[in-house]
Every structure is written in C-alpha cells, then in structure tokens.
Amino acid sequence: MPNIDREGIFRGEVVEAVMRQPKEGSASSIMGLKIRIEQMLGEHNQWVEWSSYGFEVYADVVIVRKNGELHENGCSQLRDAFGWDGDLDNLPTGRCSFTVKADEYEGKTRYKADWINPYEYVPQGMKAADEATIQSMKATIGPKLRAFFGATKPLNPPKPTTPPSPPPAPGVTPRLQAPPLTLSKPAVRMTQTEAWTKFYNHAKGVRPDWTDQQIVDEFGAILNRHLNGRPTATDEDWGWMGTSGIDEWVPF
Questions:
Q1: pLDDT digits 0-9 by tens, 96-106
Q2: Which domains occur in the chain, in start order?
Q3: Most confident option among 84-93, 162-171, 198-207
Q4: Are β-strands 8-20 and 47-49 bridged in parallel, bridged antiparallel, or unpaired?
C-alpha cells in the first residue's frame, strides 16, 4: 500500500507493531507502528472517508531515551490511545487518531505519524483559563502589568500641520448633451484629482464640521451646473472646478 503523501490529522488502524533500536547497542528503544489510514479530518472538524485510497503511515514512538531514561510522553501516548500497559509481549493494536508531519532527511521528504491520540480525539481551539485562574492572574501579575504599562504610556502624537488627504474624487453622473460652455476666464487645466483635492481642502478649512459626503454632494452639484448637461469633463472643466468652482461654493 502507498505511504501517505501529505500532512494532516487522520484516523486509522494499527496493522503492525514492533520494538526496535535505532542503532545496535543503543540504549534507546522505539516502538514502530504501521497504521492503515481510514479517515482524514477536513473542514469544520468533519471526518472524511479515506479507506478506499489504501494509504498507510509509519510512526516511531520513543519509549526509552538515548540515556536509558523512560520517555514518558511516548509511553503516555500509547497508554492513552490503546490502553497499553507496557507489556512488551503484548504490543498495542486497535484504532487511533494521529497527526502526520513531513520528515526531511538527506534531501528527501517522508510523511510520518508524529503524535498518537485516542481514536475519538478531535483538536479544539485555544482553551481559556477558568475563572479561578483568571482571578489568580489578576492578583499576582495584575499590579506588575499596570506598573509596566503605566510607565510606558505612549505620548499623544502631534497634530499634523498639513490637511489630511481627501477621499477619492467622487464619480459624477453627467446629464444629457448640451452646447459646450464658453469659459469666461482664461482656461486653467487640472486633473479631476487635483481639482477635487483643492475643493476638498478649501471646504474643510471653511467648514470643518462638514462630513466628507456633504462635500462630495456639493462638489457634484457645482460640477453638474457647470457642465450644463455635457457628458464628460475636460481638463479645463476640472481647472474651473479647482478655481472658480470654489468661488461658487457658499457654505451656509
């Protein structure tokens, strides 16, 4: 059967268990498990059937360290997942849940079961401390936190000396076609953004209590009166809005 080709959380059945040593004469002892994959945990913590794919995965669970000391984490995994009692003549069998991780070795990637859990295990989100622990935290570290943040309270930033950038120039829906307007003043050319920026900054200086939407509405009304039905505005029209158009604005 093929070995698993991706990381994830799976369920499966142990089909073989052996004891081995990573090196001859080593004090370390490892239990090797071969697990046939049955399900993969998908979105929203729902198990997806995988039995038909025929994948297998291997796990090396260290039960004795290199220094000869018992590896309690490894032993606990086997006890909690299979109810194993440490009997080397009766190695674990049955079903379990497990996490698969990529294992890089000599430029090659293999996927192995990294942690064994009971079959019913489903990962949960972050677990918050209970109320008693929270109250204990407040009593023990609360004063230290208040002292730290009180001493490092940020200074109020200085107010900017230049006006803020105006919102994007509003789109204006032109009216029906009409004869072009003859400008009474020498033409000044601007882009729409330049005209809007001048109009916006002037309006904010005169009426700082006005909202951006009020300024947008006034800008559009003056522009439509100026275009008098023409469908598009030229650079000269925008120039007029950035100069004479400002003069037409009467903010009551």
A1: 999 999 988 88
A2: 8-117 (2.40.50), 164-252 (no CATH)
A3: 84-93
A4: unpaired
Q: Per-residue b/e over 157-190, b at no fewer than 16 CB within 10 Å? A: eeeeeeeeebeebbebeeeeeeeeeeeeeeebeb
Residue 123 three-state SS: coil
The count of C-alpha atoms lying within 13 angstroms of the C-alpha of 37, restricted to the half-sphere facing its C-beta, is: 31
Q: Which residue has the tokens 């086997």?
A: 78
User: Which pLDDT band, with edges at 50, 70 and 90, does 251 fall under?
Assistant: low
Query: The tokens 């799976």 sit on which residue?
Result: 10
Rg from Cα positions in the chain: 36
Residue 97 pairs with which residues in a beta bridge? Answer: 11, 117
pTM for this entry: 0.50
Residues 120, 97: Cα–Cα separation, whole Å: 7
Cβ neighbours of residue 221 closer than 8 Å, sequence gap 6 or more = none
* The token pair that represents 31 in the structure block: 């239990």
Of 236, 158, 230, nearest to 192 (Cα)?
Answer: 236
DSSP structure class, residue 104: E
